[in-house]
Structures are given as structure tokens and as C-alpha cells.
Amino acid sequence: MKFKKYFIEENTIKVPRFEESAGFYTTKQRSKTMSKIRGSNSKPELLLRKALWKENIRYRIHRKDLPGRPDLVIEKYQLAIFIDGDFWHGYEWQKRKPKTNQQFWIPKIERNMQRDHFVNNSLQAMGYVVMRFWEHEIKRNLPACINQVKLYIEAAKKGRIPERD
């Protein structure tokens, strides 16, 4: 099943465009820094992928036909894994709100969190189990993240979770 834009929600949070005409300003240094932020193949994602591969856990990356384009998909066990950036996906964001351009960043982060919730529900409706790891979890405690994936796979192998042929 191909997914077009699947964000057809009634209460979608509107994020203003980040442009000078809307009153948002940025320095050249900030613009250069922000342009280097990756959406895929980030360092935490590569760390997790290499560790899973070393454990002989095979996966597909960035499946475009699934909602949210999961970072990793283990199709045999219908497992979708996302690696969420702490800032972009709102880890403790109420405590660490941005200091500048709040009228842009607050709706942006809230919209990302809303989209994550919608993607989770869409994938679960398709029969997938969704795992989300924060980037700081992967950086600080990679073995625990790997163990969580391995525990799920072991449970699936023992028949507690239905396998997909």
C-alpha cells in the first residue's frame, strides 16, 4: 500500500513559514549550522544500524511505502524503528524551550510530536510494532536499545508475537 501525504487530521497544528517576511530572523552562522542537520543517516541511526547488523539482525532502511518512513524496518517481525532527535521530537521540551523564535519552534515541535503519534497509530493499524529511541538513549546506552530489539525478536520467535511470512 503506497502512502501519499497521510496527515489528514482535523486538528493539525499549523506551523508558520520560517522566513523574514513572517518576522523570523537567523544569522548566517546559525543557518550554516542548521543546514548540516541530517534527517536520515544521522550518527545515532548509524550507531544503531551497525550494532544491529553486528548482532545478525537484518533490516531495511527508510521504507518510503510506510507511514513516517521508519528509519529501520524488520519486516519478518513487523517491527518499525524510529530514532528521534531530542530537539526535533520534543524530548523534555517543556523544560528546554528554544530561547529565540519561539512562535515558530513551539508549533513546529508540537506538530512533530502530533505527527509521531499519528504515524504510530497508522503503523499499528497496519500490524506493525513501533519502537522509538531517543538519540540520547542510543548515544548513552546503546546495549539497552539493542537488547530491547532482541527481546522483541525472541518473543516473536517463541510465538508470542505473530510473525509475518
Structural topology:
Layout: H1 28-35, H2 43-54, E1 60-61, E2 72-74, E3 79-84, H3 102-125, E4 129-134, H4 135-140, H5 142-157
Parallel strand pairs: 3-4
Antiparallel strand pairs: 1-2, 2-3
Helix pairs in contact: 2-5
Write a structural description:
With 165 residues, the protein is of the alpha+beta class. It has a single domain (38-157), classed as Endonuclease, Chain A (3-Layer(aba) Sandwich). Helices cover 40% and strands 10% of the residues. The chain contains 5 helices and 4 strands. It has helices at 28-35, 43-54, 102-125, 135-140, 142-157; strands at 60-61, 72-74, 79-84, 129-134. It has a 4-stranded mixed β-sheet with strand order 1-2-3-4, with helices on both faces. Strand 3 (79-84), helix 3 and strand 4 form a beta-alpha-beta unit. Helix 2 packs across helix 5. The longest helix is centred in the last third of the chain and has 24 residues, at 102-125. Mean pLDDT is 83; it is low at 1-7.
